Amino acid sequence: MSVAELHGVAKRYGAIEALRGIDLTIERGELLALLGPNGAGKTTAVRILLGLASADSGTAAVFGCPPASQEAKLRRGALLQVAKVPETLRVREHIELFSGYYPNPLPLSETISAAGLKGVENRFFGDLSGGQKQRVLFALAICGNPELLFLEPTIGLDVAVRRGLWAHIRDFVSNGGSVLLTTHYLQEADALADRVAVINRGRIVAEGTPAEIKGRTGHSAGGGLEDAFMELMKENPIEEMVRI
Amino acid sequence: MTRVYWMEAKCEFLKLLRMRSYSLSTVLFPLMFYCFFGLAMGRGQVTGASMPVARYLLATYGAFAVVGATLYAFGVGIAVERGLGWLQVKRASPMPLSAYLVAKAAVSITFGAIVVALLFTLGAVFGEVRMPALQWLALAGTLICGAIPFCALGLAIGNFAGPNSAPATVNMIYLPLAFLAGLWLPIELLPPVLQRIAPFLPTWHFAQIALSVLHAPTKGTTMGHVGALAAFTMIFAGIAWLGNLRESEKMYG
Inter-chain contact A52–B4, Cβ cutoff 8 Å? Predict the structure, then answer.
């Protein structure tokens, strides 16, 4: 059963076609990695599924509802890359506030321990390390006990923190949760994903399990997803994207 | 549901209180200016108004305080939270957008009210301002209600200004709006050419209402000023709405 879908979604920003009609389905209990280079349309696809942007054509649904609807919002969580989070609130205050948005949030102590924030819950956000900040954003994504998680790449995290986050994400999926992970961090997709959709120039250019993607491009099981990815990009050369 | 509003307001209050760039400048600037112009130099009478300077300037610095508290909280606050991605996280969450705006308004008006209370204390204790209790209350109520158009102006600035330039943008708007409307010095002291600009400024209408509560000589009628402020509020809200539209069509990655 699908929890989120895009059907024939196109989106244009001025002269730039960010999405040229993509279909994407996230099934219950799977982690789908949306993989692509910068400017491929990953962020636009996620913004549409989060209700932050609207599609020019095609349909988007989350749990069968419009992505911007309260119904959809209550059942999903999102870890987005943020340049600046209010620094003069304590970790606990941030989590309490977001938990309050949901009717049945996780107990505060559970969110704090799941995100690995025990011992720093009374610190100001501005006093945290980069990894701890990322974990607070993860806590805000899971505190509402969502069924669907949107995750952006965990760049800039040290290995230990990233592995810890991965462990929580695997737990979440094995308990029936669904995840859409957008990344250009191939190792991450390879390690976590049940299924990979490769997006380039606003189109899905390949879709399948990590093994299938590697197989499709003639790379044996020994080859990394990264080789397969480079192969796919060669078939579909990356257009110079103008970034606004 | 009301709990969300309450929590949002509580967090906004704590956030701003602990942000010294906000809490100190919002509180200290009006108090300091009132000490200089209202108390230190304020033993005389305002020309043309049979009223001590300390009392007259209580109305105008009260307005100055309220305008500052709302413009910084909305203008700088939203420009930073929107421009650096935090507002997106909130908008993707089930938080009602109205809770975000109502909390910002309630908290910035609360800061304004705190500064007004401190100004009143300074005026009464050091400036020997004496008024009937009802007049104090009427002035306080007027100053607090006058915050509304400036919440809208702050929202308009916050929806357009960049996160780094927002403080400068707010100052470029706030300080001239204050000076040219006679919030720092009685407007009669300004050159006549500048006095002619004043009726085009929302701050002037605000100050005229506050001054009329003190029975200081004013121009126009209270209803006229309220109408002008309502019109300004609509214009600013419209500009804010345009800024919001522009935001949703901005491309990311």
Answer: no
